[in-house]
Specification:
7 strands, Tetracycline Repressor, domain 2, 3 domains, mainly alpha, CBS-domain, three-stranded mixed sheet, single chain, 65% helix
Amino acid sequence: MTIELLEKPWERLLELVETKDSAQLLDFLNSMTPPDTALAISRLRIEDQGRLFAMLNPADAAEVMEDIPDSQAAEVIEELEPEQAAAILEELDSDHIADLLWELDDEDAEAIINEMAPEDAEEARQFLEYEPDTAGGLMVSEYLAFSGEQTIREVLDDFQDKREEYSGYHVQYIFVTDTDNRLTGVLRMHDLLFPRRDSKLKNLMIENPLKIVVTASIDELRNFFEEHHLFGAPIVDAEGHLLGVVLPEAVEEARRKRSVHQFLGLSGIVGGEEFRSMPLLQRSGRRLSWLSLNIVLNIVAASVIALYQDTLAAAIALAVFLPMVSDMSGCSGNQAVAVSMRELSLGLVKPGELLRVLSKEAGIGLLNGAVLGLLLGGAAWLWKGNFYLGMVVGGALALNTLVAVSFGGLIPLLLKRLKLDPALVSSPLLTTVTDMCGFFFVLSFASLVLQRL
């Protein structure tokens, strides 16, 4: 039976798990493409996913785990005993191990690390010292480094002796280090083919090679690879010690994950990726944490209307313009938020440059606010034939646009200084401010000229 003949491969998968037939289970998994594997496993209950991985040997389980999203793999790992999880993780590339450990609670991650071989455990703890969206979090420790005093013959002999270990490496370059493991040079693989076998690496290497500091951000890494078309880049610490290698495909995958994370956050799903195979209460909690906050913020904004309900009742035409003022101001504010977040990601602005950003955005707010205010105020005057209504609506939009643009430009910087994610928090805060100020400006201005409305 092939995967093409199965409309619901997860049913066959569950059948093999229940019969505990490890050989047929592995054959069936190998017959599927990675997307089919991810789909089938996602349709199993989390406890059945754990049973599935427990039936496979660590190497086979690691191969299957590479086919499913990290957040889903982390859910599976939590179902396994720490020693089982550790055995599987040891079969993965170092950067994948770090990705999965970052998805786990600190207690679960530490329990698994304690079951790993001492060398692997030390490496895992080292990777966890770096944020996942930096060069340190993306690098792999599977690289080849030799002393400059070694010869071509010694390197080639080492390749032969450790061919099974090195076969899984993404090897394009040979790095040369000194006795303190500081990066001193690099050789391309074809540089080993033609020189005399007794030639020393230090006489053949490219000195002062391009390198990246371990704290570099995703955007810095992407800019590096766009400028230098390399198959990989060495990662060093502040003293120049070689720590690992970052591959360009790892950078692009990290950018994709960041985009997904930001999209989910702006859509109101916080706490990471969500899949419908996750427990109901967990999914509900991730959504309610955002929705509950929005209820509170909307109550704050609506309270302004309650203070001016008599004014609104006396000039009911204002009700038409209230959402327009808040919505238009919100759009202007979101533009400022987007520019600040983009400049933060590129390192073009620092979280402490509040006055600079405020001065730049205030000018835009004044100009755009005046134009938008004239347009909406003119429309209100023509619609109702009331000059004062146009003044109230247009003036409120102009002033609220100034507030929204100024606040929108500042809030990502403020949140960054507080070590909060601007992508997740900026939108609800900006919405509340623009709604509250917009309602206040319209209704307070209307109260001043109520008799003429």
